[in-house]
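Notebook entry, structure prediction.
Reason for the run: the old model in the group folder had no record of what sequence produced it. Starting over properly, with the input documented here first.
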Amino acid sequence: MGNCLTSSSSSDVSKKKKALPIDTAFRLPSPLPTWPPGEGFASGSIDLGGIHVCQCGISSSSPKVWATHEGGPGNLGASFFEPSSIPDGYYMLGCYGQPNNRLLSGWVLAAKDDSDDDSLLKQPIDYTLVWSSESLKIKQDGNGYIWLPIAPQGYKAVGHVITNTKDKPSLQKIRCVRSDFTDETENETWIWGPGKEVDAKEINFFSSRPKNRGTQYMGVRVGTFVAQNPPLPCLKNVKANLSYMPNLRQIETLFQAYSPWIYFHPNEAYLPSSVSWFFVNGALLYMKGEESKPVPIQVTGSNLPQGGANDGNYWLDLPIDEATKERVKKGDLQNSKVYLHVKPMLGATYSDIAIWVFYPFNGAAKAKVEFINISLGRIGEHVGDWEHVTLRVSNFNGELHSMYFSEHSGGSWVNASELEFQGGNKPCTYSSLHGHAMYSKPGLVLQGSGEIGIRNDTAKSKIVMDTGLQFSLVAAEYLGSTTIVEPPWLNYFREWGPKISYNLADEIKKVEKVLPGKLKTAFEKFINGLPDEVLGQEGPTGPKVKRNWNRDEV
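New structure, fully documented this time:
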């Protein structure tokens, strides 16, 4: 492949180095299952409309071109590779880079021109040196040189080439892409820079992703790193080809392979239930102006208003009878179920499996104010709580790439290499006490700033939900309306709980009674800055009303 590390310079790390996370290649704990037959899913390559692409995984056998051992995330440096095992007829589109602070795991796309006139891919006409590490006084293996391919007119480069010599790379090494097969990108995660954090005055390397992401957007992630601003473009699925998405049987096999475990805190009082359990156990539909005449809800939600907008004219609530209300608030784990929504993402090169969990009630929040832990009274309480995690699966091979954890009004993606697995390839999820935010690791996450924030306590207890045992596929629009019939409750776009009326100032004063004087002002400012979703004053809406229903998570 040309640029492999073979010798060291005077600035190299010559002593025996401590093993880094990147020195170990990540593999899923168990082999992938045999996928049921279908059209294009997990076939190894995807047709973007004349350009065929395949994923070339980066492994311990991939040629490492350059590495640095300081700077970047964790101040552990980064490593840069050329893809290996490129199939015959395919060409490299760019090199790969990742921080040294996580296990080696990644890929870049290679491309093949299947057009009649071979007009979709062209080799560059020259290279420009973007940057070199020669002048840096850092721990590094040799010197690194970042090159930008100069594309012919009407074509664009979608990745950089990295070398460890001053010699320009061969023009045969890489291919540029016809402009109409490219799309806009944005920087995603920081790979490396000379400092311990991003410094705009220095060179910084990032991974990139399509700028517009959702079921209707066709930008395709290339997997290469970028070392310039604005970032290089990505690929584009020009014919919006959805034939590589999983069929019904493949979805079921995927979910059985990757269905998460959800661990609840040992003190959790408000557990999930199925939607039908909530309905048949006394949930009521209210209509504005008819508050004295609530209506029982049919088991499928068939008498709920359908479509429209959240206009405030309808809402759901718990049963009126106090004993029944308290019982329903606690949910029923034995009768719980998760609800799946499968959608194309990143130009249909990935399948996102959103896993929705319903809780009849969200409990009151707790706060940490420096060294004091306090209950927030009614703050945070609301009826009807929808939470979710999302599995992102490669349509090239069916491998789990990453997982999204929803956390109140936000959330975060976690790479598969950083997940905890149990029972094969099933990741673990931790639901926070009372608030039900989802996290990838147990412990305390403080939602706030400094030493003041909402407590999100999680733990691995004996209260656990195996989502693979009770699930229902409620939506996969790309399969058509005849394949999956959506339940009526899914198209109820109003609130799943009433607007809770309480005086926030009074609740704050109750809490402030136990706080030292200097902490009262800071606490009040923090609480007043929280969104209504966290405060619990507004009833939540259902899954289909959320922005991420047809867009990317973040």
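Summary: Residues 44-236 form one domain.
The old model has been moved to the deprecated folder.
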